[in-house]
Amino acid sequence: MPESGEVELALWFFSLAKDKGLIIPPRFIFCFVKALARKKKAEESKVLLKEMISRGSSPGNEVFNVVVYVYSRNGDPDGAIEATRELMNQAQEILAEAKQKHEKLSYPTHQALIQGYFKTEQSNEILKLFQDRDFFGVKARGDEYTKPIQLFCLVAMNWRIAEMLRMEMNLKDMQLDPISKEYIVFLKKC
């Protein structure tokens, strides 16, 4: 089998199954992507993953994790970050669909998305999720504000947003830890 034909062979297999009306379980997609990952073929595994998503198959998180792992192992942090962002974009689409169908969303759903955006340092998306929480009935806890405030101070260098989150905490009778307060004060002085 030619080296460049592995992705094409997998896509042919999936299109054949789709033509026959068969539903391909996510674990099979995982097997193909993992096989490419073992050969350290990050780009090929990402191409296969994107194609599966475009054809309507819904790969699980472990498929994305394998792709991110291969990029990391190959010494390509930019590829790993890009793959993680694609995962978060897919999760955001699923969240938008869930918002249309349900009045309230669960706490773990919001928490998982926020953690994913922390990994990719997408501060605007974190802020949107924090704003959506009250609207969809998800109650925030005081310690959950600490990480975003520190992210806005240390990574985004934006003390105004951090201060806004701190004031939001005060309105909800929550206390910010002293270290995070010091980050805000330090950035204001700079």
Overall description:
With 190 residues, the chain is mainly alpha-helical. 74% of the residues lie in helices and 0% in strands. The protein is elongated. The protein starts with a helix and ends with a helix. 23% of the residues are buried.
Note the topology.
Blueprint: H1 5-19, H2 26-38, H3 42-54, H4 61-73, H5 77-101, H6 107-120, H7 123-135, H8 146-154, H9 159-171, H10 178-189
Helix pairs in contact: 1-3, 2-3, 2-4, 3-4, 4-5, 5-6, 6-7, 8-9, 8-10, 9-10
Family: Belongs to the PPR family. P subfamily.
Protein name: Pentacotripeptide-repeat region of PRORP domain-containing protein
Keywords: Repeat
Backbone CA Rg = 21 Å
Low-confidence stretches: none
Main sheet record: none
Number of strands: 0
Structural class per helix/strand content? mainly alpha
Quick synopsis:
The protein has 190 residues and is mainly alpha-helical.
Describe this protein with a few key phrases.
single chain; 190 residues; mainly alpha; 74% helix; 0% strand; elongated
